[in-house]
């Protein structure tokens, strides 16, 4: 979808469809809509009246006026317009325009409480994410697609600001779609090697550095926890390290901030010898959603140019049962020397992340670490499908992430890392066990990771719930959502 800013009056923009907003309580049509209504011989007003259109957020309807579609999207109460209201209105409106056969769509940008930059960003994010579809494996491709989007900011003095917001929105949405494509790809077509190739291709096409460590190199570095998980798979594991460094030097006397992002990259989680039951295994191609989020984020950074150094780390492998797989009761040794007894081979994510955290602390030594992982079913039980768990050893970092999530329209809820629960991870034979009791499973997993984060400020996003959706959402059809990409991009861009 090509996007551009237009400062013409809405009705003067050449497009197959116009998407306009209506607030709750605008019973008398505002002048801009009244003009369109006159062009439509009063048909717009008649449709709105007949359908008792109230302008509620999420509501959408349409009329036809001399060959053009006029789509009306509800914006809720005028005093309460948030970026998320605009995203959802743009998504529903552009989706309707597309379904009506429009190829070029103009969207009116409203929202009193938002800056022109925020408004344009939200509209572009909504338009692109709301029309995302994954049809790589379908013989019949959808014939209806929107190829051009005009973001209409009628205040010409705000055009620069709006253009800036538009570019941000496009970068955020394309990064999210990129992650969705990787996550939606089936596990037989997306092995660790393919994740490594995706990372290498990203780096070759832009200003990112990349290094992929093979099994032997990981062995030399002592990544026994990661390689233990990989032991049962015929697919070679890959440890991926991407680097974004901003152009130029930091201001004199100032050190540049360094952030590490770690994504859980289990391309398929069968559970290992502690095999999952069929219902539990069905969706496990999604178990690399954290890794895909990291790749999406890294992909957007060269365009967004934040003044910080960002490292993306992915310990990519499958978790499979076989004669070479790790067994319950085995003991693994992580890169920092910590020994781990395997209580359950299905708690594999934390093992791969443990070596990722060790690598970050020894080889990158960042100012902070954020990991993203579809880590526990327990977190889905606790918070459901629309909310990610947040755990951190540093409250300031947690607070900043919650603020970023709020702006991005993604939900994070902090869970406490209760010290007393550490005893749940005690082992008779090793320094740690990789599982605890059922209760508080998301927290025990967080406490396990905390052991490897050390003193570095660290935050953990358990995205097992929101990483994919079983039903269509306002900004995502069934399947992968690309959750965490926009939150973390917002965070890095502050
Ligand atoms: N990948 C799963 C977690 C998961 C579950 C993600 C449901 C998405 C939806 C993870 O590797 C896992 O299997 N965790 C176990 C841990 C348990 C053995 C302590 C779980 O949550 O059951
Ligand atoms: Zn598992
Ligand atoms: Zn897993």
User: What's the CATH topology label of the largest domain?
Assistant: Aminopeptidase
CATH class categorisation of the largest domain = Alpha Beta
Q: What's the number of structural domains?
A: 2
Strand content: 15-25%
**Could you give the order of strands across the largest sheet?**
7-8-10-9-13-17-14-15
- What characterizes the major β-sheet? 8 strands, mixed
How large, in whole angstroms, is the Cα Rg?
Answer: 24 Å
* Beta strand count: 19
Bound molecules: ligand BES, zinc ion
Q: Tell the overall outline.
A: elongated
What does the average pLDDT come to? 96
Q: Give the name of the CATH architecture of the largest domain.
A: 3-Layer(aba) Sandwich
* Continuous helix count: 15
Residue ranges: pLDDT <50 for 5 or more in a row? none
Structural class call reads alpha/beta
Features:
single chain, binds ligand BES, 2 domains, Aminopeptidase, 494 residues, 37% helix, six-stranded mixed β-sheet, alpha/beta, eight-stranded mixed β-sheet, binds zinc ion
């Amino acid at each position: 979808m090509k996007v551009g800013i237009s400062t013409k009056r809405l009705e003067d923009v050449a497009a197959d469809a116009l998407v306009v907003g209506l607030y709750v309580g605008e019973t008398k049509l505002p002048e801009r809509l009244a003009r369109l209504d006159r062009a439509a011989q009063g048909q717009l007003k008649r449709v709105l009246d007949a359908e008792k259109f109230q302008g509620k957020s999420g509501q959408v309807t349409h009329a036809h006026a001399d060959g053009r579609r006029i789509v009306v999207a509800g914006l809720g109460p005028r005093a309460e317009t948030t970026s998320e209201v605009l995203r959802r209105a743009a998504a529903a409106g552009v989706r309707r325009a597309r379904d009506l056969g429009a190829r070029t769509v103009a969207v009116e940008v409203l929202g009193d409480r938002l800056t022109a930059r925020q408004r344009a960003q939200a509209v572009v994010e909504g338009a692109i994410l709301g029309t995302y579809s994954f049809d790589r494996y379908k013989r019949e491709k959808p014939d209806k697609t929107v190829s051009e989007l005009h973001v209409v900011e009628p205040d010409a003095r705000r055009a620069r600001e709006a253009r800036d917001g538009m570019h941000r929105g496009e970068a955020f949405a394309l990064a999210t779609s990129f992650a969705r494509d990787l996550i939606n790809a089936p596990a037989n077509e997306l092995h660790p090697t393919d994740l490594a190739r995706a990372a290498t291709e990203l780096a070759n096409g832009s200003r990112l550095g990349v290094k992929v460590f093979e099994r032997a190199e990981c062995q030399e570095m002592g990544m026994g926890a990661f390689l233990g998980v990989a032991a049962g798979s015929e697919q070679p594991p890959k440890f991926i390290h991407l680097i974004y460094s901003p152009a130029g030097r930091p201001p004199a006397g100032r050190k540049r901030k360094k952030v590490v992002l770690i994504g859980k990259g289990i391309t398929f989680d069968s559970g290992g010898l502690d095999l999952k039951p069929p219902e539990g295994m069905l969706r496990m191609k999604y178990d690399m959603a954290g890794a895909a989020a990291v790749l999406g984020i890294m992909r957007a950074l060269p365009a967004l140019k934040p003044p910080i150094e960002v490292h993306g780390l992915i310990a990519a492998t499958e978790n499979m049962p076989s004669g070479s797989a790790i067994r319950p009761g085995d003991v693994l040794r992580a890169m920092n020397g910590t020994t781990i007894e395997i209580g359950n081979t299905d708690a594999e994510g934390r093992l791969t992340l443990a070596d990722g955290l060790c690598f970050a602390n020894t080889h990158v030594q960042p100012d902070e670490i954020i990991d993203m992982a579809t880590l526990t079913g327990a977190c889905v039980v606790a918070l459901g499908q629309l909310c990610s768990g947040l755990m951190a050893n540093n409250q300031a970092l947690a607070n900043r992430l919650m603020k970023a999530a709020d702006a991005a329209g993604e939900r994070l809820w902090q869970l406490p890392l209760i010290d007393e629960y550490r005893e749940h991870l005690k082992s008779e034979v090793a320094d740690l066990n990789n599982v605890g009791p059922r209760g508080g499973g998301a927290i025990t997993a967080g406490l396990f990771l905390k052991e490897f984060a050390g003193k570095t400020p660290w935050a953990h996003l358990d995205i097992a719930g929101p990483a994919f959706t079983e039903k269509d959402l306002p900004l995502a059809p069934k399947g992968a959502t690309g959750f965490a990409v926009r939150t973390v991009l917002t965070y890095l861009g502050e």
